[in-house]
Design brief:
Helicase, Ruva Protein, domain 3, four-stranded antiparallel sheet, lyase, 2 domains, alpha+beta, N-terminal domain of MutM-like DNA repair proteins, 9 helices, 273 residues, globular
Length: 273
């Protein structure tokens, strides 16, 4: 399932094509959404907001569309006369004169008044989005120290969207490695310096993945690996999906274990308990 950086990049892709341009045609593949077609045609997309793995499309007439890609949903953009040849089911089609943005295969979609979209059950449950410009290291640190999360093992906390929306499995492994903390530890077991490092790396790794299209290794290392001819998957991560391969820092074989039903990777030396 895509994580926060991938959802934000998908939102950027759609915004780049249709934002602030009148919608000539709107399509919905779900029966309960079809009554909104006439209300949205002629309006414009003002912005696309992400809350973790959910995407909220804000329209100029005071309506907003909540959508969650879940496992199979995907946004696609194209020229208006070059619709993709696919067996996927169209759920949402937003068409301007020259281009189209289409959401395929997703099933969790609803229309809300913009002023009450925050009442959506999913949005009420999730925490701040890790890629929102208003989210600071101090806010992450505050949440790590909060009563709700202070005594949770980091292995589970960094999959919990109530803590920070947009975190996910590969980000969990990469953040904990970069911060140098063992996945079984709790925020309550870390000193102030470790907590601040973890808060910093939480945002830094997510932003790096967003800005680079999925890389969490630092830029200089990526360039060295690419110069050696290593492919995308081989250069992308520090520890994730690198079981038994040497740690990029200390050469210790990377470990893999299932935490909270998901695979997690770490270095026994760099993240000693």
């Amino acid at each position: 399932m895509p994580e926060g950086p991938e959802i934000r990049r998908a939102a950027d892709k759609v915004e780049a094509v249709i934002k602030d341009i009148p919608l000539e045609k709107v399509e919905f593949g779900l029966a309960q959404l079809k009554p909104y077609v006439k209300q949205l045609e002629g309006e414009v997309v003002l912005r696309m907001e992400t809350r973790g793995k959910a995407l909220i499309t804000h329209f100029s007439n005071g309506l907003s569309m909540y959508s969650h890609n879940q496992l199979y949903g995907v946004w696609h953009t194209c020229k208006r006369n070059e619709m993709p040849d696919t067996t996927r089911q169209l759920r949402v089609g937003l068409h301007i004169e020259t281009h189209s943005a289409i959401l395929y295969s997703a099933s969790d979609i609803s229309i809300w008044p913009t002023q009450t979209i925050h009442e959506h059950p999913f949005l009420q449950r999730v925490g701040p989005d890790v890629l929102n410009d208003s989210v600071t290291e101090e806010l992450v640190l505050e949440r790590l120290r909060s009563k709700a999360f202070y005594n949770r093992a980091l292995s589970g906390l960094y999959l919990d969207q109530r803590f920070m929306a947009g975190l996910g499995n590969y980000l969990r492994s990469e953040i904990l490695f970069t911060a140098g903390v063992h996945p079984s530890l709790k925020p309550s077991q870390l000193d102030d310096e470790q907590l601040r490092s973890l808060a910093h790396d939480t945002l830094a790794i997510c932003k790096r993945s967003y800005e680079t299209g999925g890389y969490t290794v630092y830029t200089e290392l990526r360039q060295v690996l690419e110069a050696k001819g290593v492919n995308f998957e081989g250069t992308r991560f520090m520890v994730f999906d690198r079981e038994e391969q040497p740690c990029r820092v200390c050469a210790t074989p990377i470990k893999r274990q299932t935490y909270n039903g998901r695979r997690l990777y770490w270095c026994g030396q760099c993240q000693a308990k």
